[in-house]
Amino acid sequence: MTARLTIALDVMGGDRAPAIVIDGANIARERFPNVDFLMVGDEQRIEPLLARLPLLRKVSHVLHTDKSVSSDEKPSTALRNGRRSSMRLALDAVADGRAAAAVSAGNTGALMAMAKLSLRTLPGIDRPAIASIIPSQRGETVMLDLGANVTCDAQNLLQFAIMGDAFARAVLGLTNPTIGLLNIGAEEMKGREELRQAAILLRESPLAAQFHGFVEGNNLSTGSVDVVVTDGFTGNVALKTAEGTAQLIVHFLRESFKSSIWARIAYVLMRPALTQFRNRVDPRRYNGAVFVGLNGIAVKSHGGTDGLGFANAIGVAVDMAMHGFIDKIRSQVAVLQATSADPTPAVSLAP
Amino acid sequence: MTARLTIALDVMGGDRAPAIVIDGANIARERFPNVDFLMVGDEQRIEPLLARLPLLRKVSHVLHTDKSVSSDEKPSTALRNGRRSSMRLALDAVADGRAAAAVSAGNTGALMAMAKLSLRTLPGIDRPAIASIIPSQRGETVMLDLGANVTCDAQNLLQFAIMGDAFARAVLGLTNPTIGLLNIGAEEMKGREELRQAAILLRESPLAAQFHGFVEGNNLSTGSVDVVVTDGFTGNVALKTAEGTAQLIVHFLRESFKSSIWARIAYVLMRPALTQFRNRVDPRRYNGAVFVGLNGIAVKSHGGTDGLGFANAIGVAVDMAMHGFIDKIRSQVAVLQATSADPTPAVSLAP
Q1: End-to-end CA distance of chain B
Q2: Helices (H), B120-231
Q3: Which chain positions lie within coiled-coil regions (chains A, B) (predicted)?
Q4: Contact assessment for residue B308 and residue B284, using Cβ atoms and an 8 Å cutoff
């Protein structure tokens, strides 16, 4: 019998909270029969929704608070005034061990700031990052950082690689995920200095055998490596560019299907195949970005998602909790620190 | 009667040179009856190809050289040893006024290095950039820098905005193109310092009315602004990410069309509509990146393109030459310098 796992939900976070959070939990309940939910939020609004879902009610515990963080609140304000908010209490439940992970569709900046304060950064990690899965021609790729750090040095990038490796093992179930550093490939412009330094660090690290060197923007989709490491500025631009391009192509495609009577008939014939296509490019499928590098699992859902998308974010949290994501990072950091404690350092930072 | 225009072609540059260059010139000849070609390369290989195309032969002049720059040559080596290469001689023809623009599908790094040396940077411009057009839901967007400068300061970005404005006027025919700075939008992480400074400079510049502030990666495809300004690292990653994503979606789509007998029938019915779709996402359509900020027009074609793609790169060169692209930059720089020569500077670099 599998041990039961508790996931804390910020029921008040997101554009259509609390309804989509409860919907998402109900979908996740079917997928993960060993999961209990700690529902943090306004019980006056949660209880009527749960009353209609007796099976979910049975695996849920409501932690009442009438405070929540608004979507436009500054992280500094949220930190100061949000000690009793649903977001903060969900994270605190992870910090003191009552929950294995927290999921919120609320304000990204506030969630990051609160997660750092409540869960604290792991020893050996200088800066947490945001990681997520993106689709590729070969399956799925882990990418980080997606926006937590606008500039990064070589050490940060090395640490992101360690966290990305643990992510790919926990969520994608890979044994020795390959790792690439996102760079540009044009001749004589071999990218930025910190990337060259990070490549040197990686080649001397315990991840050396998994490190495949530099990759370029198009390799995110070809799936040339399992883990793509970059700074939060570049990662955020790349992720949003990919989302925008996917929407553009689907927009062009939709116009094609309307362009003639034959195309309209074709659309009807193709409907089942197009459903499969739509599922593959559905952003809800890849919902759930993880704040990695903390003493606990915090998952950020898109604010505008629906129940299905929120259930997928819960799924990411469950995968990470069940597969010992945090312990994997801890042990890799320990190995790395043992290596670099060597009195004759094998790593040279000279270009 | 329209004045005739000469375009210099590096006939030996690219994966399938000289054949695709000659093919491209022949397609461009039909589109632009007022264009002559200066074909720089090995006449032993060019003449037999031209012999089969008498109409192209009539508007072409061959400048013989048996030297060319290889695709894997280092820019520094190409600069030193390539003084008589087809690439260099094509650029020199622009420098001394025998041609209005040069087009090459050769080695990007070598072309950039040679173009800087041969054409020199425009007064008032610190660093040239690479600019191109990308498709969007509203039409087309100019993006720069796409890889010439891995790091940029606020002044560089302001100058890129000036060059992007001139590009959009010359190639897209816009009167007051809107301009955005590529940034990330997550809360409390308002992007990089140089971007905030560049935004201040732009708000105080002659382009202030056209400046729409920060845009994000997805805005490249929505077409929220006509010109997107970024550093060469981010621009290169974003461009390649968009290309990779487009390929991924088309890959998923192709699999959908094969997934059942009904989908295969639908494919036949949809063929004309899909041709239109394919044209809209065809990378050849957007072939032709321009090195902007030089005393002359140099256009870089993809190395692996075909005749149609190369013809489009020639088309970009023709548009820029016919619409006074360089003069537009010169006059904007003059206005900007007049503004900043003001004894009480309106521009503060304080954050």
Answers
A1: 54
A2: 154-171, 193-203, 219-222
A3: none
A4: yes
Report whether pLDDT(A350) > 50.
no
Question: What's residue A341's pLDDT?
Answer: 55
Could you tell me if B127 and B149 are in contact, meaning their C-beta atoms sit under 8 angstroms apart? yes
Residue A276 tokens read as 């499969």
pLDDT for A24-60, tens place per residue? 999 999 999 999 999 999 999 999 999 999 999 999 9
Q: Do A98 and A166 belong together in one domain?
A: no
Q: What confidence score (pLDDT) does residue B233 get?
A: 95
What was the pLDDT predicted at A349?
Answer: 40
**A240 touching B, CB under 8 A?**
yes
* CATH code of residue B232: 3.40.718.10
CB contact under 8 A, A147 and B217: no
Q: How many whole angstroms separate alpha carbon A122 and alpha carbon A327? A: 10
* pLDDT of B48 over the 70 cut: yes
Taking contacts as CB-CB distances below 8 angstroms, the residues of chain B near A263 are 269-270, 272-273
Distance in Å, alpha carbon of B218 to nearest chain A alpha carbon? 4
Pairing of strands B101-104, B297-300: parallel
Say if the Cβ atoms of B249 and A216 lie within 8 Å: no
Same domain for A105 and A253:
no
**Any B CB within 8 A of A153 CB:** no
Question: For residue A92, how many other CB atoms are within 10 A of its CB?
Answer: 22
The question of ipTM being above 0.95 is answered as: no
A8-12, A172-176, A263-267: least confidently modelled range:
A263-267
Q: Least CA distance to A276: which residue of chain B? A: B256
Pair (A41, A89) in one structural domain: yes
Q: Which residues of A touch B75 (CB under 8 A)?
A: 187-188
Is B321 found in the same domain as B173? no
Task: Convert the pLDDT of each residue in A46-105 to its tens digit.
Answer: 999 999 999 999 999 999 999 999 988 888 999 999 999 999 999 999 999 999 999 999
The residues in A 207-236 lying below 8 A from B, measured between CB atoms, are 216-222, 230, 232-234, 236
Which 3 state secondary structure label does DSSP give A159?
A: helix
pLDDT score of A187? 45
Instruction: Give residue A276's domain range.
Output: 126-286
